[in-house]
Amino acid sequence: MHTQDSEVVPVPAWPFSLVVFSCGGCWSVTAKMLRNLLALRQIGQRTISTASRRHFKNKVPEKQKLFQEDDEIPLYLKGGVADALLYRATMILTVGGTAYAIYELAVASFPKKQE
């Protein structure tokens, strides 16, 4: 914000003209703010852009064929080694967490005797 006694000093700078506002000792450089706003706008355009820069092979038909095969493998393991590792880690954490919860309930249900 600038008050009535503010002075505007244009300074030529590439690619934007730099405008400096003097307001009682505080300096605000608007060219830097404009550059930041333009950078944010460009990032937003790149993120939301409908035109794809990279062209990937469509793997959906291959995945559909893989997941629809009747090969006695459970669906949650058809993704390969990564799925098998995630499944095993989940089972270990689930069984371990259940055992720990039962242990803590047992400890809490039998309080220590005060001597």
Automatic annotation (TrEMBL):
Annotated metabolic or biological route of this protein: Energy metabolism; oxidative phosphorylation
GO cellular component: mitochondrial inner membrane; respiratory chain complex IV
Single biological process term from Gene Ontology: mitochondrial electron transport, cytochrome c to oxygen
Transmembrane segments: 12-31, 85-103
InterPro entries: COX7a, Cyt_c_oxidase_su7a_sf, Cytc_oxidase_su7a_met
Pfam families the record matches: COX7a
Molecular function in Gene Ontology: oxidoreductase activity
Gene3D superfamilies reported in the protein's UniProt record: Cytochrome c oxidase, subunit VIIa
Protein name as it appears in the record: Cytochrome c oxidase subunit 7A2, mitochondrial
Organism of this sequence: Homo sapiens
Highest classification ranks of the organism: Eukaryota, Metazoa, Chordata, Craniata, Vertebrata
Encoding gene (name): COX7A2
